[in-house]
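STRUCTURE REQUEST FORM
Protein name: Quinolinate synthase
Source organism: Paenibacillus sacheonensis
Requested output: structure tokens
Priority: standard
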Amino acid sequence: AEQNRELRERLMQLKKERNAIILAHYYQRDEIQEVADFRGDSFLLAQKAAETDADVIVFCGVHFMGESAKILAPNKTVIIPDERAGCPMADMVNVDGLRKLKAQHPNAKVVTYINSSAEIKAETDICCTSANAVRVVNSVDSDEIIWVPDKNLGHYVQQKTDKKMIIWEGYCNTHDMLTVKDVEEMKAKYPNAQFVVHPECRPEVVELGDFVGSTTAIIKYCKESDCQEFIVGTEDGTGYQLRLDSPNKTFHFATKYLVCPNMKVNNLKKLVKCLETMQPQIYVPEDVADKARLSLERMLQVK
Ligand code: 13P
Ligand code: SF4
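Status: completed
Returned output:
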């Protein structure tokens, strides 16, 4: 605790010196969420990165999030606590594969989940997050959509839109691990609890949800609901904001495996160190960034 106090003091000092802003995803460790200027889901954090007038953005999340921040704020310095924090789902789609699919479906528009590399975004018509996926797909002026990379979110969106979606086979290792059996056992154990679930989970698991949404949407739902007890079907870091917003409610994570190891690579010590050394920095080649930026800016304009 003493060490963390010293780290936090050093952090505040560095933040001032560098004119930096700290953004943290809800899946980050508590010790990082505690010191962030903004906590949020992928959508809010992309918005904050685009809007900030700080000189430095410290992005506590996984690599694609830092990349999106750099693309949206090309004149800012974007640093991350550890460049090994990647997203396995983002790595499940490659440019060659996507180009092949585009050649096979020349009339389709490409909608890409923000959990993807800058190179994939550069091949994309419009990005989305789990918070706006249905709205984004419906906003596209084509009846045919190529959807990458998350098959589970893709399946969820397909149920809510009339457009024909050609869905890539990627998935999130962490959310995809949750099974119907896990959820049914928890429901039997906590019969008064509602099940709130992220659409990165398997379709048959999402189907069991009393509420389905992005991390922000789940947190908001739990806060506003009359229900006092929840089974949570998303990454365990969301517990920080859930308990902060609803201190008198009870939250049971659906399994103890709902932990994204990449998100947990970052810690307070590395956060302080990256502001000290200004490394590692995110770099995106200009031609890639210019194309990718269009797809992200289009997303930010969808109401
Ligand atoms: P959201 O916070 O946008 O719901 O994203 C979930 C996720 O898996 C991010 O990696
Ligand atoms: Fe990627 Fe899943 Fe981790 Fe999010 S939770 S960063 S989608 S692996």
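Reviewer notes: The chain is about 45% helix and 15% strand. The two ends are 43 Å apart (CA to CA).
Form closed.
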